[in-house]
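Team,

Forwarding the record for the chain on the shared tracking sheet. I've put the sequence and predicted structure together so nobody has to dig through attachments.
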Amino acid sequence: MAMRSSSSRSTARSLQRLRREYTRGSLEERRAPADPLMLFRRWLSAAIAGGLPEPHAMTLATATRNGRPSARIVLLKRADRRGFTFGTNYESRKGRELAANPQGELVFFWSALDRQVRIRGRLSRTTQAESRVIFSRRPRASQLAAWASPQSGRLPDRAALEARVAEVARRFEGGPVPLPPFWGGYRLVPREIEFWQGRMNRLHDRLLYARSAGGRGGWRVVRLAP
């Protein structure tokens, strides 16, 4: 018990020392474009050009019909005026939650740039043609994995998963791997996009783009307190 208490105190002290100032940029209304997609692309391009690992990785937060949340990392496949797109197993936990409650949020965090983007809106499945394009761009081994994995389902052990992969590999040996009927794309259509730029003394810049009434017009921009 004493050893655990000492370890907990040491961990707490280490966490308290994990603090740095954010000095890598600023975000001002007068320099922000009217279209948030332009700013998002600018920031994503900077993350890619800076050699950041997995710059297209984003947290996807979903919730059950009763509001029980869950979150995980997925990879952005496309960002355009229609929304933000990624691919997954429709029978996974995220897929089941989105079927019951299509509201969600995406979060990008680029620590090396002191930047974060939060995107809130409604998600829906992409067309089968779009899903086929997303799937076709995966490496073959990842395509086989999509077929083999009962995503979010329980497995007895690692060997069972590898056996499923081997069986799928034999099934599609010598030919292309087709799009699984349970796999495809989702697109989040943004209602709000918030850009966060870290600043000194935790006085961060936060600009929130919100759709005008009805979601059919342009965007209005407001500054949020840090």
